[in-house]
Each structure stands twice: as C-alpha cells, then as structure tokens.
C-alpha cells in the first residue's frame, strides 16, 4: 500500500494536490480542494480496473460545473428552510443559494475550500487527513469550527471516511460526502439497472422545495421499499408523488434501521461490482442524479440524468426546524465525530 502525491492545479497562488491511495487491488484519488474524491478504481468480475465515480480532470471544471461531485459538504448537508435558524434565542441568517433556501453549506461551503492535507502511511492502511478551520460567521454560521476529514484505504478494500469537529461556540454541523457512484465502470451505462438495498422502514416526506415536511412515510408497498433490494429504474418509473416530486427518482432521506451492519448495498449485475456501506449516521440521503442532463461533459461523456447516484450518510436535513429529528446542534467544545465505511467486492 502506498500514497502517490501529485500537483493537480494552482488556486490563488497555492498548489492543489492530488493523493492516490493504492492497495493490492484498487485505488482512490482525492484532492485537497473540497476533499473531492476524483476517482475510485475497482475491478469488475473479470478483473478489469475501471473508475466507478463521477468527476473531472481539471479544477476549472469542478469550480464551473460540479454538482458537488465527490466533495465533502458542510457545515450542514442538505437544505435549511429559508436560510435561517435560531439558537438560544438568536437568529442566524445563511446564504440562500437554492431558491429561498440554504443548500450544502452555502455559496462558499466546504466543497469550495482548500484544505490542509497530511499523508498517512501505516502498516495496515494508507490515507490522507484533511483539516480546515471555518471561521466564526463564515457563511453565516456561529463559532470557529475546526474540522478534520480523514480518508483511509486498507487491503480488505475498505475505504473509510471519518469526520471530526470542535467549535468554540454552539453551532450546527452535519457533514457528508457527495460522491456520485456508477458501478458500471468508466460511465459505460447509467445506474438505472443498479440494484440498491437500504435497511429502512421509513423515509422523510419532502415538500415542493425538497425540504422535509417533518413527516415520515412508511416504505411498505412503495418504490421506497428497498429492504430486499430494488433496481433504481423502479423509482424512476414510479408514479408515487414523492418520486415525481424529486424529478422522477429519489432525493430523499431514509431513516436507517440499524448502524454499522451492511445497511446499504449497491450492486451492478453486469459488471459484478458490489459496494457495501456501513455508517453510524441516522440516515442516508439517496439522490439518483435526476437533474444531470446535458449540463457538461464528464471526462468526454455528455452528462445525462441517472449518470450516477449519491448515498449521503448524514443527519436528517433541516433538523434544526424539527425537534423530533436527531439534532445537528454541536455544543461549545463538544466533539463531533462520525464515520462511514465503503467496502468493495465483486459477486460472480
């Protein structure tokens, strides 16, 4: 196992580096701009190594076109209604960067920051530790928040993302990674034939602006019942009002029934690739790329709807406005920590 560091770009006089984590079977490449995962190369059932995530080869493309490809988003993932919230009687105003709402940390969120990076080379794993301090008032949030995001890869083909944060004031924190997966390899096909299993009995109902209403809907007898696995196509072709609302597909938080026990499985039968996701987060937001059509090229392939799907392990979006949701409030000097593991294999 080893880590290869290279120059990726120059941003405002500072070098953006890429880091490629390699084990005996696969590799993960990321950059210290937005902690973006640019490539994950894994073998198919015939041993052919191909890229299974959406991304670009230049910083300019990420800055101009990217729908959060591969990035860490924060301080809060998802939408915050009306771009405002209240803590201890004080109202905080956030940038409204999607309609009237605040999305994925704002105009200059964590996905657009240059992070410090330190290579990790241990006996059983390799990785990169990214760190960034979000100043008090950045994008409207209170508190100086020190954040560390660590990517590690081991020889069991486990890729682990760990998030850590501490603030000197009470604030909101809800981090996730926004990688778009496509297990066909090198974007040969869309993800409609991918089979997805999520151990979840309920999902959060969304309003017309894709913000949780506060209600949970039972998945029984709907395209949202992924407990035994369903092809993505079923949700795209579903007439369920929530599937139609999301633009014919999914953009929904699923409440997880359990944690750290293979609660999410993505499988592509044609390539044989399988990805198992374990997390300590209460939910996963499934987004099936319903709005990717024709906006840009992805390494020579015109973007199209359902080119990839996101599995954003996180707290529920807009939880600050719903007291019965798991809280994303971080107290002063309290430690924020969460971890998600991705395990890659093939099924012959």
Task: Give a brief description.
The chain is mainly beta and 348 residues long. 5% of the residues lie in helices and 44% in strands.
Describe the structure.
The protein has 348 residues and is mostly beta strands. It has a single domain, classed as Beta-galactosidase, Chain A, domain 5, CATH 2.70.98.10. Helix content is 5%, strand content 44%. It has helices at residues 59-65, 232-236, 241-245; strands spanning 2-11, 14-22, 27-31, 37-43, 49-51, 72-73, 79-80, 84-87, 90-93, 102-103, 116-121, 125-134, 145-154, 158-167, 171-172, 176-177, 180-181, 195-198, 202-206, 212-218, 230-231, 251-255, 264-267, 273-279, 283-287, 297-298, 301-302, 309-314, 329-330, 336-346. The strands form eight sheets. Strands 11-12-13-14-30-24-23-18-21 form a nine-stranded antiparallel sheet. Strands 17-28-25-22-19-20 form a six-stranded antiparallel sheet. It has a five-stranded antiparallel sheet with strand order 1-2-3-4-5, with no helix packed on it. Strand 19 and strand 20 form a beta hairpin. The longest helix is centred in the N-terminal third of the chain and has 7 residues, at 59-65. The mean pLDDT is 97. It catalyses: alpha-D-glucose = beta-D-glucose. Beta-D-galactose binds at residues 178-180, 251. The active site is at 178 (proton donor), 312 (proton acceptor). Belongs to the aldose epimerase family. This is Aldose 1-epimerase.
Distance between the termini: 26 Å
Using the coordinates shown, work out and report the CATH topology.
Beta-galactosidase, Chain A, domain 5
Q: How much of the sequence is in beta strands?
A: 35-45%
Q: On the 0-100 scale, what is the average pLDDT?
A: 97
Number of strands: 30
Q: Nearest-angstrom radius of gyration?
A: 19 Å
How is the main sheet built? 9 strands, antiparallel
Unreliable segments (pLDDT under 50, ≥5 consecutive)? none
Number of domains: 1
Mind telling me the CATH class?
A: Mainly Beta
Q: How many alpha or pi helices? A: 3
Note the quaternary state here: single chain
Shape estimate: globular
């Amino acid at each position: 196992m080893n880590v290869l560091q290279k120059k990726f770009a120059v941003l405002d006089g500072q070098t953006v580096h890429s880091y490629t984590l390699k084990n005996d079977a696969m590799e993960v490449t990321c950059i210290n701009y937005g902690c973006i995962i640019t490539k994950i190369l894994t073998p198919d059932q015939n041993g052919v190594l191909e890229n299974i995530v959406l991304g670009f080869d230049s910083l300019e493309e990420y800055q101009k076109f990217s729908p959060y490809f591969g990035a860490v988003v924060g301080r809060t993932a998802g939408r915050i209604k009306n771009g405002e919230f209240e803590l201890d009687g004080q109202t905080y105003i956030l940038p409204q960067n999607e309609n009237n709402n605040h999305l994925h940390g704002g105009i200059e969120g964590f996905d657009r920051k240059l992070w410090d990076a330190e290579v990790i080379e241990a006996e059983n794993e390799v990785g990169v530790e990214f760190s960034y301090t979000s100043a008090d008032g950045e994008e409207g949030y209170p508190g100086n928040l020190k954040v560390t995001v660590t990517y590690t890869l081991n020889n069991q083909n486990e890729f682990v993302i760990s998030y850590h944060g501490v603030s000197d004031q009470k604030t909101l924190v809800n981090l996730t990674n926004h990688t778009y997966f496509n297990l066909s390899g090198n974007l040969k096909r869309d993800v409609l034939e991918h089979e997805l299993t999520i151990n979840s009995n309920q999902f959060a109902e969304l309003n017309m602006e894709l913000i949780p209403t506060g209600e949970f809907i039972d998945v029984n007898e709907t395209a949202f019942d992924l407990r035994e696995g369903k092809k993505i196509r079923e949700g795209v072709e579903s007439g369920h009002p929530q599937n139609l609302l999301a633009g014919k597909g999914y953009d929904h938080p699923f409440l997880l029934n359990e944690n750290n026990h293979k609660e999410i499985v993505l499988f592509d039968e044609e390539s044989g690739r399988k990805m198992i996701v374990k997390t300590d987060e209460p939910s996963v937001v499934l987004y099936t790329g319903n709005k990717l059509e024709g906006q840009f090229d992805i390494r020579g392939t015109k973007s199209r709807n359902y080119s990839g799907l996101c599995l954003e392990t996180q707290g529920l979006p807009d939880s600050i406005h719903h007291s019965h949701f798991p809280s994303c409030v971080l107290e002063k000097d309290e430690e924020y920590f969460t971890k998600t593991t991705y395990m890659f294999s093939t099924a012959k």
